[in-house]
Amino acid sequence: MSKPLSAETMAIVKATAPSLQKHGVEITSRMYERLFADPEIRFLFDMAAQASGEQPRRLAAAILAFAQNVDRLEAIKGAVERISSRHVDTQIKPEHYPAVAYALLSAISDVLGENATDEVLNAWGEAYLFLSDILIEREEALHREKEAA
Ligand code: HEM
Question: Which one of 78, 90, 110, 125 has the fewest CB atoms closer than 10 angstroms to its CB?
């Protein structure tokens, strides 16, 4: 697992998360605009939408909410299980994570405007990487369990 986030990074993430969550719809639509520009990523969501009957509108909101709890990992254990198993079902792979990072950071930059300083974007980039590592590790374990069964 990646090393824990510094207290400073956490403080920046926590300070900016509420204003990002307030603009949830804008963040989500900007994220998807960027994500879906890549046909391979769009395909993953199209397939998932067919399976579950709805688009994953809550992805951005989940990342924001999740990031606020990265200093209390026990609080997000249940969510990590649910998300990882959904990702395994929908064929999400480690190499898909950077596209979401790029889309998220661009959306944050658009929504926060001049308040999206390098410091803020770096803190969010670190928090996203940290969360990605947790999910990727769990998803790899689930794949191994599936293969062994
Ligand atoms: C830190 C990173 C991520 C977080 C926090 C996250 C969060 C979530 C959440 C909360 C769900 C819904 C789970 C449920 O059914 O209850 C979900 C599903 C999904 N995620 Fe992620 N995700 C992340 C990364 C990614 C990446 C990198 C991709 C692919 C580009 C992706 C694609 C999907 C898809 C296709 C679904 C299924 C949507 C559906 O149920 O229709 N996610 N994710």
Answer: 78
pLDDT band at 18 (very low <50, low <70, confident <90, very high): confident
Query: Contact, 58 vs 20, CB < 8 A?
Result: no
Fold of the 7-148 domain: Globin-like (1.10.490)
Give the per-residue SS3 of 17-37: HHHHHHCHHHHHHHHHHHHCC
pLDDT in tens, 69-127: 888 888 889 999 999 999 999 899 999 999 999 999 999 999 889 999 999 999 999 99
Query: What is the spatial distance between Cα 69 and Cα 64, in angstroms, rounded to a whole number?
Result: 9
CB of 97 sitting under 6 A from ligand 1: yes
CA of 45 to the centre of ligand 1 (A): 9
Q: What is the CA(78)–ligand 1 centre distance, in A?
A: 14
Residue boundaries of the structural domains of the chain: 7-148
User: For 51-69, b where at least 16 C-beta lie within 10 A, e where not — what string?
Assistant: eeeeebeebbebbbebbbe
Nearest CA to ligand 1 atom 31: 92
Measuring from atom 27 of ligand 1, which residue has the nearest CA? 97
